[in-house]
Amino acid sequence: MDEKTVSKFIESWGTMGSVWGINASMARIHALLIVSERPLSLDHIAKTLRISRGNASMCLKELRNWGVVRLVKEPGDRQDYYVTEPDVWKMFFAIARERKRREFDPVLTVVRETLSPLHKGASDIVRLRLKQMEDLLTTLNFIAERSLTNDKRARSVLSFLSRFVRKKNLKE
Amino acid sequence: MDEKTVSKFIESWGTMGSVWGINASMARIHALLIVSERPLSLDHIAKTLRISRGNASMCLKELRNWGVVRLVKEPGDRQDYYVTEPDVWKMFFAIARERKRREFDPVLTVVRETLSPLHKGASDIVRLRLKQMEDLLTTLNFIAERSLTNDKRARSVLSFLSRFVRKKNLKE
DNA sequence: TTCTTAATTCAGTACATTCTAAATGTATCA
DNA sequence: TGATACATTTAGAATGTACTGAATTAAGAA
After folding, report:
1. Within 13 Å of residue A46, how many CA atoms lie on the same side as its CB?
2. Which of residues 101-120 of A touch B (CB under 8 A)?
3. Cβ neighbours, 10 Å, residue A50
4. Could you tell me which CATH number the domain at A3-84 has?
5. What is the layout of strands, in order, in the sheet containing A80-84?
6. Does residue A52 belong to the interface with chain B, where contact is any CB pair within 8 Å?
7. Is there a contact between A168 and B162 if contact means CB atoms under 8 Å apart?
8. All structural domains of chain B with their residue ranges
9. pLDDT tens-place string over residues B114-154
10. Closest CB from B1, B86, B120 relative to A118
């Protein structure tokens, strides 16, 4: 594999990371592990990506929390080695699930708490908007909730959806 | 409508904004317009939310770009007044569409460009991962692309999806 | 136990984003 | 035309986020 292409890949995956809300260092580490056949040590990762060992350590901890990388030990070696979770899709769902839980759910609760009392004393127009917001949030939450319960289901939802939009397209 | 509840709603919608990638001021302005029956002037908005007129101006410009608010003129009045797009769902799709176009699409192009040359000289294991990444990105892009072409379709995809996951849940 | 090597934590720094307020631009009115 | 009333732009301040590197902790080896 060409050195230069590998690094271009790593950088672009870093940018993609920030698109869906994980920071660039995390995504770059992840990309590096994806193109590496063998487990890599923290030291190796930090050196290759020119980031501090401290930062690498924190990112890897976080990536383990997301369920995206795994730590492997080699007998007779004190260093920790890291490998990527082999299934990329599974990984994607893990991230989606985590982000929903950490960011969406808590805010959803608060928004909902305020939405219902607002209905009182609101004009019809405003009430309609609030109702729509409530429905939108409920639908999104419902879909995410049910889709992400497990990876198998998530996958089947995605593939189904993919077929559905293709069919839709032919019709119109 | 209770003053206090309104402001709690505005703040929590602000937080929700940052979850899906629009900044807090923008989301707060948006929330304020949602609970307001009548169009509001820039000055009124800035005063109510305790933000500078400059900031309000920039946020409103951006919200107009997203297709989320609209400017209305009142005859015999020099001020600009703003109203929210009445259909909350439509608005949500507009945001999704814009974010995809601005952020996801450009990165997707770059990642794809690097993915294919990487295949050469990669081990089977790595090649499998790269293939999976490609498939995942393609599927996501495909779904988003097709779903978001127009609001009517987007809505039907969502409602269909919602029914699908409900059925799935009963079965298992 | 102490020595050694590696991982982790964290205070401070660098960088990025968001916001303010003053300056500038624009349209309407007298 | 100049004066007025508003909107917009922008330089720099404030705030927030990510990162570094030194200090600390942990754990295997002697």
Report:
1. 14
2. 103-104, 107-108, 110-111, 113-115, 117-118, 120
3. 6
4. 1.10.10.10
5. A40-41, A80-84, A69-73
6. no
7. no
8. 3-84, 88-171
9. 998 998 889 999 999 999 999 999 999 999 999 998 899 99
10. B1
